[in-house]
Each structure stands twice: as structure tokens, then as C-alpha cells.
Amino acid sequence: MSNIRVCTKCDTAFTLRSTLDRETRCQTCRGSRHNRYSNQSNQRAKALEWMDEVNDRLTSLEKKLLALEEKVNEEDVESPVESLIDERLKYKSTEMQDWVEKKVLKLNGRILKLTEEVEKVKGLLLKKGGYES
Ligand SMILES: [Zn+2]
């Protein structure tokens, strides 16, 4: 029996340690056991770090969104008073309200996108079995 086998990953011939060696990959593709695992946990740590970052961004976006929504609500409450004030000011207020509403919509879109991204990464991590929520 030959002590040479062809790597299943890169098709390079490699030497077996013994005829009983069941390794199917060359030294390069195999890497050391230690490296393989530390590499995996590095990727996992990076993914989790990124998710934390996204979470922070979502939290700050949510805060901004709430503040903007409060502003919109305030404007609504003030509307009876508005009828008493100058037309120009009223127009400005409507303009402001439109602007805030547009901002809220934009933020909502971003939050949805970010949430989707987080779910995607979560799915990938779950597939790898590396993430417990
Ligand atoms: Zn190989």
C-alpha cells in the first residue's frame, strides 16, 4: 500500500504518516488542529463583535427615532394653538413635521435593513452551531 495520497481539497499528493493514516487532506489544507479551532473562534468572535456593534447602532437609531416621534406627537398636540398663530409659522411647522416624518421613515428602513443583516448572521452562526441566543 502506498504512503502517498491525493488531497481531497487541493489535489496535491501528500505523504501519509502511516498506512493506517486516514487523513484525506494535505498538511496545508488540514492546518493544525489548534489553528483550525482558533481560526473558527476568531471568526465567531468577530461576528459577535460585529453584531454587538450593529446592536449599538440599532439602539442609538431607536433612541433617535423615539425622539423624532415624540417631536411629531408634540406638534400634533400643539396644532390647536397653531390655528391662532401666523399662517407662515403654521406652514413652517407643517414643513418641519413632514421633515421629521421623512426622517422617521428613513430610520425605520435602516432599522429593518440592519435587523435583516443581524438575522442573516445569526442564521449563519446557528448553522455552524457556534451561536447560542
Ligand atoms: Zn490540500
What is the H-and-E element order? EEHHH
Mean pLDDT: 75
Tell me how many strands there are: 2
Helix/strand/pairing category: mainly alpha
* Main beta sheet: 2 strands, antiparallel
Estimated share of beta-strand residues: under 5%
- What is the molecular shape? rod-shaped
- Give the low-confidence spans: none
Taking Cα atoms only, what radius of gyration do you get, to the nearest Å? Answer: 29 Å
End-to-end separation: 49 Å
Number of helices: 3
Query: What is the topology, as strand order, of the major beta sheet?
Result: 1-2
Bound small molecules, by name, code or SMILES, are: zinc ion
Residue share in helix? over 70%
Describe the model.
The protein has a domain of 31 residues. The chain has three helices and two strands, in the order E-E-H-H-H. A two-stranded antiparallel ribbon has the order 1-2. Strand 1 and strand 2 form a beta hairpin. The mean pLDDT is 75. Zinc ion binds next to helix 1.
Topology:
Layout lengths: L3 E3 L6 E3 L11 H4 L2 H50 L4 H42 L5
Antiparallel strand pairs: 1-2
The structure holds zinc ion (ZN).
The site of zinc ion has 8 residues, from helix 1.
